[in-house]
Specification:
It contains 28 helices and 16 strands. The strands form four sheets. Strands 3-2-6-7-1-8 form a six-stranded parallel sheet.
């Protein structure tokens, strides 16, 4: 059968399965340039080879973690160039980070394909904008604003809206999101409502600031990072001669990490392509973890719909991780729901067997950190380099306890993607405020009604943004609150360890901790958030803090938000090559009652857990309902934390003083509140008629596992037990409540 014009015959397959394939993530620092086009294909596995040979028409590469996607697409470009099918200057490869673009350029040079443009979307667009601006608009391209946050601050001031530093960061991020999703200021409130996005402030206020920000930019003839894409899109849309020029220059496009493309980036890509289809995209919907920035996997999932004749290649041979790690990763995705889950890839490890993932339950957070540090020290002693070990957590505020534990264990470490805990601006500000309050002593009016060290710290930090309840959503405000909350918890732990400690004692303790952690940066164990670990890998990975409320995070409420949390954990698991440890703690601090539960995502994969789907079970055939008798008080009610006699009805319901630390499962509390709201609406009664806030808090602290335990909570009587007990116990067990309306459900 004759070959298409320009298509070379396929060379015979090498014996890749007998050692010819090298690991996708390990290569020599100075490899020799292949002698020929055929030599470029040496060492590729059959699927990678298929990618390299698919040089015409639309190509979609679905590449799982560790399967060598960068290897496949760079060899594809290099083979096309070396075979004379592609001209180097006619190829544009785009990705999302300068690091990834630089790695791609380096690999192409090593393969003898220098001259290919490998850039980020913004870099490629900026070059085109600079070149065509004089012709399209006239004059020089407006200056690129260096710090848009200052302009956002001025816009807010002109709107008479006060923003503190963290609110300013969040509003700036929100404006960036609006622009990459092509949302104009007037439409912003409606789009936020439609997408159920957690806005950092009132949407009307953000819309107003956004509009003023755009006006200020026009007045001063400056553009921002997002404008680079928007203006390039506008020129290519309006000037067909310029669009034709770009299309003559670039004949072939490759897009890496396609699951992270925003609507604006997709629009730019469409304009680059025109009516052609020489496009190769590479991605994995199961690694979509940046939707809060505007990224969406829909373009990847719809690729075959838009391009019915596309060549689709799946890369599932995992060269990074052992079969044990890959089995766990597959198990996590096996529970996933939603459209992205329908396109999940079943990875197949190509490595020798390794140790089973370790699951460890600790009594409290310090014990978890200390246990992790001991295991890391043992690995280093066994020959694993410290630089090949990582501790990954959900939010940056979790780093402090691991910084301390590793420091105490004499293990060097480095933080990635975040400042060291005591170097964070909000922590430094809090330290100054606490130091001032300690010096003022009884003369500080803030401390007039504060009894005990934790109460004093809460009072001081309330002036810096700490509140009893965390702010909704993610972003800088949440990060700041988490840091301040960590200081509050530290004060609680400090007083427990040293009864009678003063504010001055705590300040001295904070100074000592900060001084101990100000050593010069060293190459050591990596401490990083799960988001910042994307694209990296280590020999040993410790996934810590895997409890409900942290994984998934409390503010993940919708089904899609929950599924993104699952994908985030999947990304964390697939960072490990050999050793993988997953851990959680039952309580926050030593001595607290262990009311936490391990992440629902571990149900099924974790040995001894209660099955797949992330749902536990209650009994064998339903909920046991023993007879509930009227409870008689026996003596005074005592606080279960400090032992003080309780007289307030709300405190007696919680069985603790209001100011005593709570070990409440926040995620469970939020689920109970959501259920209560739905139930109250259903029966046409106020929410408190179902259960009061205090009763829900008591349930979330006790986490009852049986009808008897639930009935023992103040506020849960016989009638409410009969009507709502099954639903509450199901929620406590991680199940969806199945409601059944009784004959008298019109009243409470």
């Amino acid at each position: 059968m004759p070959l298409p014009c320009g298509q070379l015959p396929r060379p015979p397959l090498p014996t890749w399965q007998h050692g010819g394939v090298t690991a996708a993530t390990h290569s020599s620092l100075f490899p020799q340039v292949p002698e020929s086009a055929d030599a470029v294909l040496d060492g590729l596995d059959p699927e990678q080879r298929e990618v390299a040979l698919a040089l015409h028409g639309p190509v979609c590469v679905l590449a799982g973690a560790g399967t060598g996607k960068t290897r496949a697409i760079t060899h594809r470009i290099a083979y096309g160039v070396r075979a004379g099918i592609l001209q180097p200057t006619s190829v544009l490869a785009v990705t999302f980070t300068n690091r990834a673009a630089g790695e791609m350029r380096g690999r192409l040079r090593q393969l003898g394909a220098a001259g290919v443009q490998a850039r980020t979307f913004h870099s490629a667009a900026l070059r085109q904008l600079q070149y065509f601006w004089p012709k399209a608009v006239g004059g020089e391209l407006p200056r690129l604003v260096e710090r848009k946050v200052q302009l956002v601050a001025e816009a807010a001031a002109r709107c008479r809206i006060r923003l503190d530093r963290n609110e300013l960061r969040d509003v700036t991020s929100e404006i960036e999101w609006a622009k990459v999703t092509q949302t104009v200021p007037a439409d912003y409130p409606a789009v936020v409502a439609k997408t159920q996005r957690d806005a950092p402030r009132d949407t009307a206020e953000i819309s107003q600031i956004y509009a003023m920000y755009e006006q200020l930019k026009r007045d001063r003839s400056v553009i921002d990072f997002e404008d680079v894409l928007l203006l390039t899109v506008a020129i290519l849309q309006d000037r067909h001669d310029i669009a034709d020029h770009v299309r003559r220059q670039y004949q072939h496009f490759v897009v890496d990490e396609y699951q992270d493309v925003s609507p604006l980036q997709q629009r730019l890509l469409d304009l680059w392509l025109g009516d052609r289809d020489n496009l190769c995209v590479v991605g994995d919907a199961s690694q979509t973890i940046y939707s809060f920035t505007g990224a969406t996997p829909e373009h990847l999932l719809n690729f075959r719909t838009r391009h019915p004749n596309a060549t689709v290649v799946k890369l599932v041979r995992d060269y990074r991780s052992t079969p044990q790690v890959v089995h766990l990763a597959n198990g996590l995705l096996g529970q996933a729901r939603g459209r992205a889950a329908e396109h999940r890839l079943e990875l197949v490890s190509q490595r020798e067997k390794g140790p089973e993932p370790a699951y460890t339950e600790y009594g409290d957070e310090p014990a978890e950190a200390e246990g992790t540090a001991r295991r890391i020290r043992d690995l280093i002693a066994a020959g694993v380099p410290a630089g090949e070990i990582a501790v990954l957590y959900r939010v940056n505020s979790q780093s402090e306890v691991y910084e301390q534990a590793l420091s105490d264990a004499g293990v060097p470490y480095q933080l990635r993607g975040a400042e060291r805990f005591f170097e964070r601006a909000e922590v430094r500000e809090a330290g100054v405020a606490l130091r001032g309050a300690a010096r003022a002593g009884g003369n500080d009016s803030l401390l007039d009604d504060a009894e005990g060290l934790p109460s004093q710290v809460r009072a001081v930090l309330s002036t810096k943004g700490w509140t009893t309840d965390p702010p909704a959503g993610s972003g800088a405000m949440r990060d700041r609150w988490e840091s301040l909350a960590a200081l509050v918890r530290l004060a609680e732990d400090f007083e427990q360890a040293k009864p009678g400690a003063t504010l001055s004692d705590l300040v001295a303790e904070l100074d000592e901790r900060a001084a101990a952690q100000h050593a010069p940066a060293v190459q050591g164990v990596t401490l990083a958030s799960l988001h910042s670990a994307k694209g990296l890998e280590w020999d040993a990975v410790f996934l810590v803090g895997l409890t409900e409320g942290m994984m998934p995070i409390t503010y993940a409420r919708t089904d899609e938000q929950i599924e993104e949390e699952r994908r985030l954990l999947y990304v964390g698991v697939t960072r490990a090559r050999f050793h993988l440890s997953l851990s959680w703690s039952l309580s926050r601090s030593p001595g607290s009652r262990g009311g936490r539960r391990p992440s629902r995502f571990l149900n099924g994969p974790r040995p001894g857990s209660t099955g797949l789907g992330g749902r536990g079970t209650v009994g064998g055939g339903g909920v046991e309902r023993p007879a509930v008798t009227k409870r008689r008080r026996r003596g005074p009610a005592l606080c279960r934390v400090c032992g003080k006699t309780l007289t307030d009805a709300g405190e007696m319901k919680l069985m603790r003083c209001e100011e005593c630390p709570s070990d409440m499962d926040e995620a469970l509390y939020e689920r109970l509140r959501d259920w209560r709201a739905d139930r109250a609406k259903e029966i046409g009664q106020p929410a408190y008629c179902v259960f009061t806030d205090k009763t829900l808090m008591a349930i979330a602290e006790a986490v009852p596992g049986s009808a008897g335990e639930l009935a023992g909570i103040s506020g849960v009587g016989v009638r409410k037990m009969d009507r709502f007990g099954a639903a509450v116990l199901a929620i406590c067990a991680g199940e969806d409540p199945v409601e059944g309306l009784g004959e008298d459900d019109g009243e409470v």
